[in-house]
Design a protein that fits this description.
The structure is a single chain. About 40% of the residues lie in helices and about 15% in strands. It is an alpha+beta fold and about 525 residues long. The chain has 2 domains: about 15-305, Kinesin motor domain (Kinesin, 3-Layer(aba) Sandwich); about 395-530, Orthogonal Bundle (DNA polymerase, domain 1). The strands form 4 sheets. Strands 4, 5, 6, 9, 12, 13 and 14 form a 7-stranded mixed beta sheet that branches. It has a 3-stranded antiparallel beta sheet with strand order 1-2-3, covered by helices on one side. Helix 15 packs antiparallel against helix 16 (about 510-530). The structure holds adenosine-5'-triphosphate. Adenosine-5'-triphosphate binds near residues 78, 80, 82, 186 and 283. It is found in: Cytoplasm, Cytoskeleton.
Length: about 525
């Protein structure tokens, strides 16, 4: 919280325990939306605790030939640079991680006779240009991919560092080269994404990316104009692409992950999905004025958490060339040198997709059906009465378009409750709709499943998989009453896109988002009612 909580409204979000937090539901201020993460760090957490719990555990993987990355993501001014860089008395993730890599490599050196040295590169992506922070006079650098799908930047300075002091000597002045500027929300706002690359010089090592992203920005509040506005456009675009990449990785069915749509995602391609150990730290600010930034950052974090990565060893010894794509095989510390029979390959693929399906279903189940396992003994999170006479723009009371969000999974796309609607319906009609849906769930083809409200390609496939493994569904939950209602009115999936619009446009400002959503809803109702749909 900033020192001056001008309107004394209290926080809009708070931690419940070390993994769970809740935020007030903007659709209904008497409710909260709850999120479950690997770790939640509150205000009292030290930099060391963040490092020890969330970052240190992934570092040994780079010495086994696997890539790793740590990102700080979140709205402008929420503390990303503080977390990643810190200050001399409170060093952040970057200095601590580099020190730890030196320790790990040194231990290897002593145990296994490694002749260790470590290389570093440091760049920023500013206005979609890749700039070398270790060589500030250089121009926009190209991003290339080698035949093994490693991402390379020809011309980027790669400096060998022999100790932490040596790293500091290069890193501190280079950090000053990063583009920062003052905005209304942060006196020293990062206008670029800064990416530090650390790579031990050995054959079998992966690389470590430590990334301080620029903040997502709502320009009505940053007061950005001119060049700041242009920067902001580039920042928001690359973060939007990051979100599309996450969606695409999550769907598991997308043919093309849009890595190439921004320099940020292109550069991090081999360290984001698939083959890397990734930690995303989401910084949020608890004040009401950041409510929508916080809400969308939490949603992004929650959907990023669903990605299942399969790290493999970047081995430079010759591996027999096999027909087909083996890039998704999991090579842990032991690289695989033998030929796999085709059947084994197919079995492995089947097992992997089942494991993926299970973890997805478990993830969806925990976020849609079960309440996270925590006890909330604290007083309800409620907004205090504001003393301010002028209503805060962010507090606009919006009539719920989609009902309450309680129990909604983090991407907000499904399980929408509509209080009061059920009572207006004849129960026999509801029962009939339930039966219809159950029948489609149990016997419907992929196409028929996709005809259901809120069921897209991904969910239809998950339903088919679930049916195959567990047999028939037995009942349609009461929770889905709004779904039943809309199915009854018209069996067209016009609600499907509302979730993606919400996440997609929220970067541009919620007013625009509401406008688009409201227009869509009106059109859909009109079409549905007229029976033409
Ligand atoms: N946990 C914290 N403890 C103390 N100070 C903090 C903390 N988090 C942030 N700050 C301070 O808040 C201010 C804004 O933080 P910071 O610059 O890290 O935000 P940011 O998310 O990187 O913003 P931007 O996206 O605009 O670059 C800084 O002065 C920073 O020192």
């Amino acid at each position: 919280m900033s020192k001056q909580d001008e309107k004394s409204e209290g926080p809009c979000v708070r931690g419940l325990d070390s993994q769970n937090l809740e935020i007030i539901n903007w659709r209904n201020a008497t409710e909260t939306v709850k999120y479950h993460f690997d770790v939640f760090h509150g205000e009292q957490t030290t930099q060391q605790e963040v490092f020890l719990s969330s970052v240190k555990p992934i570092l040994p993987h780079i010495l086994k030939g696997q890539n790793a990355s740590v990102f700080a993501y979140g709205p402008t001014g929420a503390g990303k640079t503080h977390t990643m860089l810190g200050s001399s008395d409170q060093p952040g993730v970057i200095p601590r991680a580099v020190r730890e890599v030196f320790n790990l490599v040194k231990a290897k050196d002593e145990d296994d006779g490694w002749d260790y040295s470590i290389g570093m590169s440091y760049l920023e992506i500013y206005n979609e240009k890749v700039l070398d922070l270790l060589s500030p006079s250089s121009q926009d650098l190209p991003i290339r991919e080698d035949k093994d799908k490693n991402i390379l930047i020809p011309g980027l300075t790669h400096t060998t560092i022999s100790s932490f002091a040596d790293f500091d000597k290069h890193f501190v002045p280079a950090s000053l080269n990063r583009t920062t500027a003052s905005t209304k929300l942060n006196q020293r706002s990062s206008r670029s994404h800064a990416i530090l690359l650390i790579k031990p010089h050995r054959q079998q090592t992966g690389k470590l990316y430590l990334v301080d992203l620029a903040g997502s920005e709502d320009n009505r509040r940053t007061g950005n104009q001119g060049i700041r506005l242009k920067e902001s456009g580039a920042i928001n675009l690359s973060l939007f692409t990051l979100s599309k990449v996450v969606d695409s990785l999550n769907s598991g069915t997308a043919i093309r992950v849009p890595y190439r749509d921004s320099k940020l995602t292109r550069l991090l391609q081999d360290s984001l999905g698939g083959s890397a150990h990734s930690v995303m730290i989401t910084n949020i600010a608890p004040e009401y004025k950041y409510y929508f930034d916080t809400f969308s950052a939490l949603n992004f974090a929650a959907k990023s958490k669903l990605i299942v990565n399969k790290p493999f060893t970047r081995e430079t010894v010759a591996v027999p060339v096999l027909p087909g794509d083996f890039s998704s095989w999991i090579f842990d510390s032991q690289p695989c040198h033998s030929l796999f029979p085709q059947e084994l390959k197919e079995k492995q693929k089947e097992l992997e997709s089942k494991a993926l399906l299970f973890s997805r279903l478990a993830g969806e189940k925990s976020s849609t059906v079960q309440e996270p396992a925590f006890k909330n003994n604290t007083a309800p999170l409620q907004r205090k009465q504001s003393n301010a006479t002028k209503p805060n723009k962010q507090q606009a009371v919006v009539q719920p378009l989609q009902g309450q969000l309680e129990g909604t999974p983090p991407d907000g796309k499904e399980n929408i409750k509509e209080n009061g609607w059920e009572s207006q319906l004849d129960t026999s009609v509801l029962e009939q709709s339930r039966k219809k849906i159950l029948q489609i769930l149990n016997t419907g083809s992929l196409k028929e499943l996709k005809g259901l409200q809120q069921i897209g390609d991904k969910k239809a496939k998950l339903i088919l998989g679930w049916r195959e493994i567990h047999g028939h569904f037995t009942k349609v939950d009461r929770e889905n009453v709004s779904y039943l209602l809309f199915y009854h009115v018209t069996p067209q999936p016009y609600f499907v896109f509302s979730g993606s619009l919400t996440s997609g446009f929220s970067l541009w400002g919620e007013d625009f988002n509401f406008l688009v959503l409201t227009l869509c809803m009106i059109c859909c109702f009109a079409v549905g009612r007229s029976g033409e749909s």
